[in-house]
Specification:
- The chain has 140 residues and is mainly beta.
- It has one domain.
- The chain is 0% helix and 51% strand.
- The protein has no helices and 13 strands.
- The chain has strands at residues 5-16, 25-29, 32-36, 42-43, 52-53, 55-57, 62-65, 68-71, 81-85, 89-95, 103-110, 120-124, 130-139.
- Strands 1, 6, 7, 8, 9, 12 and 13 form a 7-stranded antiparallel beta sheet that branches. A 4-stranded antiparallel beta sheet has the order 3-2-10-11, with no helix packed on it.
- The relative contact order is 0.29.
- Bound molecules: calcium ion (CA).
Length: 140
C-alpha cells in the first residue's frame, strides 16, 4: 500500500438541515479546514433566500440557491483537488454553533482503495442533519 492518489472533492449537498434557518457546515481533512460556509450564509435543503444554498459544487465553483446556480463567493479554483496523497486520510463534516461546541455530522476515510470507484457518495447523518458528500479518488 505505497501508492499515491488524488482526491477530488466534488459536491456537498444538504438533504436536511439541522437548524431551521440553515446550517454553518465546514469540511476538515485531518484537522485542516478544507472549506467553510461563506460568512453570513447557510446551507439548507430548501433555500428560501439569497443567504441559503442547498448544494456546493466544488468542481465548478457554484452553489444552488433559491434562484438556481450562483457563483460561490471567494471560490479558489483547484482548491478542492489534493494530489500526491498517501496512506489514509479522514474527511469530517462539522457544523459550527455559536453558543455550544461544534457538532460532528460525520466522517469518512479516504485511501488508495477508493481509486477507480468513480464518484463516491457518502451520507453524513449526525445530530439531526443529513448531508451528501461526493468525491472521487484517482491515481496521482
Ligand atoms: Ca450552527
Amino acid at each position: 500500500m505505497t501508492g499515491t492518489y488524488t482526491l477530488r472533492i466534488l459536491r456537498l449537498q444538504c438533504m436536511q438541515s439541522q437548524e431551521l434557518d440553515g446550517d454553518e457546515p465546514y469540511l476538515l481533512m485531518g484537522d485542516q479546514v478544507l472549506w467553510t460556509v461563506p460568512e453570513g450564509t447557510h446551507m439548507h435543503h430548501h433555500p428560501g433566500n439569497d443567504n441559503q444554498f442547498s448544494i456546493v459544487d466544488f468542481a465548478a465553483g457554484r452553489v444552488m440557491e433559491v434562484n438556481g446556480w450562483q457563483e460561490h463567493q471567494d471560490f479558489v479554483r483547484g482548491h478542492f483537488v489534493f494530489a500526491g496523497l498517501s496512506g489514509q486520510h479522514t474527511i469530517t463534516l462539522m457544523e459550527a454553533d455559536r453558543l455550544t461546541s461544534d457538532d460532528v455530522l460525520g466522517r469518512t476515510p479516504i485511501s488508495e482503495r477508493d481509486m477507480g470507484r468513480g464518484e463516491i457518495q457518502v451520507e453524513f447523518a449526525g445530530d439531526g442533519a443529513r448531508y451528501l458528500l461526493v468525491y472521487r479518488v484517482d491515481p496521482a
